[in-house]
Design a protein that fits this description.
Layout lengths: L4 H12 L3 H8 L3 H9 L4 H11 L16 E5 L2 E5 L16 E2 L2 H14 L7 E7 L3 E9 L4 E9 L5 E6 L12 H16 L7 H6 L5
Parallel strand pairs: 3-4
Antiparallel strand pairs: 1-2, 4-5, 5-6, 6-7
Helix pairs in contact: 5-6
């Protein structure tokens, strides 16, 4: 997968009207070092730095995002203009995206996805609408030494947010990964995205049936 990383970064640089050498200068590294990293096995820290300076999500470094949506949909006799992903939030189920008001069931589906794709041989994704307020997507991708779960969240009235979870962060250094801890941390990030003002402590989550 990473053999395409430099090509993807060059595509984004072209869209931004900058060269790879200019990107390297902004980051504070030599172009040769950046190029070597992108051609080899870039760390999560490197990916996050590159994404930040290109003003894109980390997930965009792996796959080219879909074109901006544009059109109208008739839902319950009313026309809805659709220009971006968040416009799909009120149209629950229209595109086969599952919607969950039951937090426990949603967490179970997230858990199943992570455990089924912890050794991915190709990119896979899972999307869902949670509590009718937020659309989130989990991208599972991997290179030789690292598995990434990139969570993108879209909620009404708030800017999109992307958080990447690496199995290395939750490993013991000997190949053993605490997948339960990774899933719990990912889930807290997701439910926190539904309402950032809400207290999602363990006690609070248990009260609304989130903990298993």
């Amino acid at each position: 997968m990473t053999k395409h990383m430099k090509t993807r970064v060059l595509e984004i640089c072209k869209e931004r009207g900058i060269s790879l050498s200019e990107l390297a200068e902004r980051i504070g590294v030599k172009q040769a070092n950046l190029s070597q990293s992108l051609n080899g096995n870039p760390t999560l820290s490197t990916l996050q730095t590159v994404a930040e300076h290109l003003s894109v999500d980390v997930a965009d470094l792996f796959v080219k995002p879909e074109r901006k949506l544009s059109g109208y949909l008739e839902v319950n006799g009313k026309l809805r203009k659709v220009t971006c992903t968040k416009d799909l939030l009120p149209i629950v189920g229209t595109f086969g995206i599952p919607s969950f008001s039951n937090f426990r069931q949603c967490k179970k589906e997230v858990r199943n996805f992570v455990l089924q794709h912890r050794n991915p041989d190709h990119d896979s994704s899972f999307a869902a609408i949670l509590d009718g307020k937020m659309l989130f997507n989990i991208l599972s991708t991997a290179n030789e030494d690292e598995v990434l779960f990139v969570v993108s969240m879209y909620a009404e009235g708030r800017p999109p947010m992307t958080v990447a979870f690496s199995d290395i962060e939750f490993g013991d250094g000997d190949g053993m990964v605490d997948w339960d801890d990774l899933i719990k941390t990912m889930w807290v990030e997701i439910v926190g995205g539904v309402d950032p003002m809400k207290d999602y402590s363990d006690k609070e989550m248990a009260a609304v049936g989130i903990d298993e």
